[in-house]
Amino acid sequence: MSMDRLIENIVKTQNPSVVGLDPKLEYVPEFIKEKKFKKYDRTLKAAAKAILEFNKCIIDEIHDICPAIKPQAAYYEMYGYEGVKTLYKTIQYAKEKGMFVMTDGKRNDIGATMEAYAAAHLGLTDVGGEKIEAFGADALTVNGYLGSDGINPLLEQCKLYDKGIFVLVKTSNKSSGELQDLKIGDKTVYATMGDMCEKWGTEVMGKYGYSGVGAVVGATYPEQLAEMRAALPHTFFLVPGYGAQGGGAEGVSKGFDKNGLGAIVNSSRGVMCAYKKEECDEHDFAKAARREVIRMKEDIISYLPRIAFPE
Ligand SMILES: O=c1ccn([C@@H]2O[C@H](COP(=O)(O)O)[C@@H](O)[C@H]2O)c(=O)[nH]1
């Protein structure tokens, strides 16, 4: 199961964090942008090429100490087809380096359309009988609020191609409670969605006790992280909101199990823009990213037991 591969990467690196590659052009150092503008003018192609170089340099610096990346599709789509090509190349490059790739697309639809999303991001696309990998991520974030019709097509691809999904349960943003905290009977909407993840996951159980259906639970809600950890023993958490959104290491520790597993914490701006925060030479941006990955890892694991496979 794909979540098994993620867990193996986490144990190997002793690092339960993922670097979000959400590369706004303003995060890319001037020297890279200037080079690409000179060659391609100020075009979408120049932007996409600059972002690809930025991403590859960061991946080169972190792949030995960080188990995964999470490219957010929006930051590639905004550069049109050139940006989407960069998303594909980023995914392939990180996978070649042994990293687990979770595309943050928050896709949602029903039936045939969800099958198309599933083929695009996780499975294979049929081209006249020839099956071809389109994007080839290991996992995809999805919105499960359309119910099983939106999730079943993904589960099929997860089973066939050993992939995973992370379903939005309790998101990190300030207004997430407007809907997700409402009660259905005596249960919140997010807890109900959590239960659905646990149920969907029974079809795709992995060997370390976690299924291929994970949940997104924000770092900004430690109490809900603790509640969900206790309620969803087979559901692995993707925890965004550390750092730039105010989430901290002690809070995120509530999402982990007794083996220091069960969750992976995301930081995007914190890592990509570490060189700006450090005020170091922009040529050192990738080394600054590496320093931030190490700092974040040490911060988080200081609240966890030693990360180990379950006995
Ligand atoms: O609840 C959610 C779900 C997804 N995200 C995404 O995570 C990153 C966070 O970026 P930072 O720069 O580390 O704040 C971004 O891609 C969001 O779209 C989230 O923040 N919260």
UniProtKB/TrEMBL annotation:
Protein name in UniProt: Orotidine 5'-phosphate decarboxylase
Catalytic residues (UniProt): K106 (proton donor)
Listed GO MF terms: orotidine-5'-phosphate decarboxylase activity
Database matches in SUPFAM superfamilies: Ribulose-phoshate binding barrel
InterPro entries xref list: Aldolase_TIM (IPR013785), OMPdecase_AS (IPR018089), OMPdecase_type-2 (IPR011995), OMPdeCOase_dom (IPR001754), RibuloseP-bd_barrel (IPR011060)
Catalytic activity line of the entry: orotidine 5'-phosphate + H(+) = UMP + CO2
Family matches, as Pfam families: OMPdecase
Keywords: Decarboxylase, Lyase, Pyrimidine biosynthesis
GO biological process: 'de novo' pyrimidine nucleobase biosynthetic process; 'de novo' UMP biosynthetic process
UniProt keyword DNA-binding present: no
Domain Orotidine 5'-phosphate decarboxylase: 16-289
EC number: 4.1.1.23
UniProt similarity note: Belongs to the OMP decarboxylase family. Type 2 subfamily.
Domain of life: Bacteria
CDD domains membership: OMP_decarboxylase_like (cd04725)
Record flagged with keyword Lyase: yes
